[in-house]
Amino acid sequence: MKTTETPAPLPAESGATVSTIDVPAPEPARRKREGGVLNVFSHGVLVIWAIMVVTPLLWAVMTSFKSDSSIFSSPWSLPDKLHFDNWSRAWTDANMSDYFLNTILVVGGSLIGTLVLGSMAAYVLARFDFPGNRFIYYLFVGGMSFPIMLALVPLFYVVNNMGLLNTIHGLILVYIAYSLPFTVFFLTAFFRTLPTSVAEAAFVDGASHTRTFFQIMLPMAKPGLISVGIFNFLGQWNQYMLPTVLNTDPDKKVLTQGLVQLAVSQGYKGDWSGLFAGLVMAMLPVLGAYVVFQRQVVQGLTAGALK
Amino acid sequence: MQHGKYRFIVGFLALPLGLYALFVVWPFIQSIYYSFTDWTGLSPEFKMVGFDNYTRMLHDDIFWKSLEHSLLFALVLPLVTISLALFFAFMINVGGRRRRGGPVISGVRGSSFYKIVYFFPQVLSIAIVALLFQFAYNPDSGAVNSILRGIGLDSVQPLWLGDPNLALWCVMAVLVWSTVGFFVVLFSAGMASIPAELYEAALLDGASRATTFFRVTLPLLWDTVQSGWVYMGILALGAESFAVVQIMTTGPGGPDYSTTVLVLYVYQKAFRDGQAAYATTIGVALLVVTLAFAAIVMRLGRRERLEY
């Protein structure tokens, strides 16, 4: 692939250690060849994986414009013409518009709630000394390692008894509760790194604790809030298990549930093209947003995991 | 600072802590309690039955099958995913040849493109990914088999998800596909914080790329790899495996329970079979497996922390 370029920076002694991938070669050419073989191999693997990631997504986009018969007869051929009706059918007849609206409502409410409540708890836990501080902190953080499924059965009845089953606000409250462990963990660490002097000055000047928090600390914590916000947005937008259990009313379904439901019902109706249109519809907004905000998304996700 | 301090603390903690206690902590405590009852979940009556559910679980063949599959998930998935991700991340960040006048350490050509593309599946819902691959695996009209036909392998047309021996591996492949990108980015961030002098020194001493990886990169990245391992294991035992198995395999649970995992079995017992108490018992087993997994990884992976 790149054997004609300048030789690899690896000194000659490296020959021994990588020789397993090497082919027998005359001594003078050995150094160049070996770097080349290794490069071709590893570049090849990188390219293959990129193809493996992109192909299924492109295949789905292509399929969403095809007619049902050609989906089955020739899965890889290009569409004979662009069947935009698949998309409009999915949007209106298959209720994709409703699922989108429900998801936006649920995720919007949960995201705001998670950030507000999470930062309140994290601020108090990071900045104030009081009996039980450590206990509450570990109670929150411990939630990260427990399998949600264990709690789901009793949770169903807790939610049911409160009359919150199959409601948007019930789902929002549960999403917030399950997002708190990571949010509190991340933001507590973040608030500890912020300088105290500004907040103390404000407090001395007569601002209340609450006012100091909302007007001084929260704006200072913006980078942390963005990171943890992206993390929670992706998690809540893609949530599947919680709505499957707590939200069985067809009118209240969120996107992921709606699509699975669609897959089952379209299976009976045989409207595969409509289903693919729905799938692509659900994929494109997040993929598009990721490409645009790629840097922030990656920073947000890795900042959390590296702490 | 004392003025109104406690009122403020209580005011700020009450709502988050209340929600968390009500929807997370309380159900957890309840579920352990319910595992000692004969509660069906359908009616409010139940009585204590001691360890009956636990004895029943130990004699339940499907439980052992699901446990086996879950353990396989927890072992194979992190191993494959993290190895692939380490290789990709190393190539992307360190593997490039030195360009004249460029930095000592750089990734291969196009590394920023790879980093963006590899992350694609991570932003998609696992439910969407599962649906997509369910079609790709379709034996008659799916993308995979028609590629095989296209390259002349007409005789090789596996049933994929319909084949009890293959279904589990098909499901795992989907999880690897969807999570590798996250770890590539995670390890890339870790590798970026390793000082370039260390690589320079290694190169001067004549280290090859493989040596550089095993002697410099991996030891310095160890903490990240370890927490990634635990994170992936928890995913493989919990939410992610639930979604792929429930959506992709028929039944669900696959032909002859060949893809049932613990988390799916909990769901089926609770919400399909009306055996809520028994479901929580299996849930407790799942909790034990998860905690044991995390403890073992932490224990085996313990090394002296390297400062740099």
From TrEMBL, chain A:
Compartments reported by the entry: Cell membrane
Keywords: Cell membrane, Membrane, Transmembrane, Transmembrane helix, Transport
TM annotation in the entry: 40-62, 99-125, 137-159, 171-191, 212-234, 272-293
Family annotation (PANTHER family): ABC TRANSPORTER PERMEASE PROTEIN MG189-RELATED-RELATED, SN-GLYCEROL-3-PHOSPHATE TRANSPORT SYSTEM PERMEASE PROTEIN UGPE
Record-linked InterPro entries: MetI-like, MetI-like_sf
SUPFAM superfamilies found in the cross-reference section: MetI-like
Stretches assigned to the ABC transmembrane type-1 domain: 100-293
Region (Disordered), start-end ranges: 1-29
Family: Belongs to the binding-protein-dependent transport system permease family.
UniProt entry tagged with the keyword Membrane: yes
PROSITE patterns (UniProt xref): ABC_TM1
Name of the molecule in the record: Carbohydrate ABC transporter permease
Main localisation: membrane
UniProtKB/TrEMBL annotation, chain B:
Record's keyword terms, sorted: Cell membrane, Membrane, Transmembrane, Transmembrane helix, Transport
Keyword Cell inner membrane: no
Transmembrane regions listed in the UniProt entry: 7-29, 71-95, 116-137, 166-187, 229-248, 276-298
Domain of life: Bacteria
The keyword Cytoplasm is assigned to this record: no
Gene3D superfamilies: MetI-like
Official protein name in the record: Sugar ABC transporter permease
